[in-house]
Amino acid sequence: IECSAMAEKFLGLPFDIHGGGADLKFPHHENEIAQSCCAHGQEEDIKAFARYWVHNGFLTMSGTKMSKSLGNIALVHELLEHYDGEVLRLTLLSAHYRQPLDWGAESIARSKALLDRLYGILHHLQDVPVAASGGRPPETVMAALCDDLNTPQAIAALNALAKTAVESRAPADKAVLMGGAALLGILQKDPAVWLGYGQSGDRSEAAAIDALLQERQQAREAKNFARADEIRDELGARGIAIEDTPTGAKWRKM
Fold first, then answer.
1. Three-state DSSP class for residue 246
2. In a 3-state reduction of DSSP, which class is residue 101?
3. CA atoms within 13 A on the CB side of 27
4. d(CA 107, CA 131)
5. CB hemisphere CA count around 139 (13 angstroms)
6. CA-CA distance, 186 to 161, in Å (whole number)?
7. Radius of gyration of the chain (CA)
8. What pTM does this model have?
9. How far apart are CA 114 and CA 108, in angstroms?
10. H or E stretch including 50?
11. Are 22 and 56 in contact (CB under 8 A)?
């Protein structure tokens, strides 16, 4: 009864969206509807209480329901100490809100890999300007979200937009990609920074890496491929990936 009373006092009836876990449909939410509608003579109109109901699936940790009693709680401010916010956001969006989501290292790693790929595409398109109409949400992403907030389908649509942008290299297609990403709250950072190109918190380390890249280039020009491979392996062991491009070698943190 307190839920019905608070809803009427603080939200007013009817209000737009009522949320809750899937386990609360019966009897909790059905009771709220019944007592609130009956109290106002609206027995035939359940939307006289709340217009839309959003029941979310359970969040599990390695197959076990997340709960305070089990102590398997992951708090956002703690997760942000280890993962970027976009990675966490995409992981939560990867499953439909009505379906269960198993939270763990594997699901987070999949989201990170997808973001790395999408940021890699944006980096590849860095010389392509964004069309003046940039920022407008694309129809395919909007259609997915309008279908009961189907976020997995929205992510699939975004992947398709990324493929189109790579193939066409058209400003309009890049703008559509950026608009869809903004709607989902991802790809909001500098691709070069995200991918770690030339990024190192230690300036001396960055200078040392650049020197090794220069030595590797000289070794390749001298056809000393054994030394060039040694440098690549040495940097790889230090967590540095080398990418050979038409404009020269680039490095980034793995």
1. coil
2. strand
3. 4
4. 34
5. 0
6. 14
7. 25
8. 0.77
9. 10
10. strand 50-56
11. yes
Q: How far is CA 147 from the centre of its chain?
A: 19
Those residues whose C-beta lies under 8 Å from the C-beta of residue 62, and which sit 6 or more positions away, are 102, 104
* Position 194, amino acid: W
Residue type, 116: D
CB-CB contact of 206 with 198 (8 Å): yes
d(CA 56, CA 71): 21
Instruction: Read off the tokens for 37.
Output: 């509608």
Reported as a single tens digit per residue, the pLDDT across 137-187 is 899 999 999 999 999 999 999 999 999 999 999 999 999 999 999 999 999
Residue 209 to residue 152: CA distance in whole angstroms = 40
CB neighbours (10 Å) of residue 158?
25
Instruction: Give Cα separations from 90 to 123, 155, 188, 244 (angstroms).
Output: 19, 9, 13, 30
In angstroms, the CA 171 to CA 130 distance is 5
Q: What percent of the chain has pLDDT over 90?
A: 66
Give me 116's structure tokens. Answer: 């790395």
Helix (H) or strand (E) holding 125: none
Provide the 10 A C-beta neighbour count for residue 162: 24
**Backbone φ and ψ of 198, nearest 5°:** 65, 15
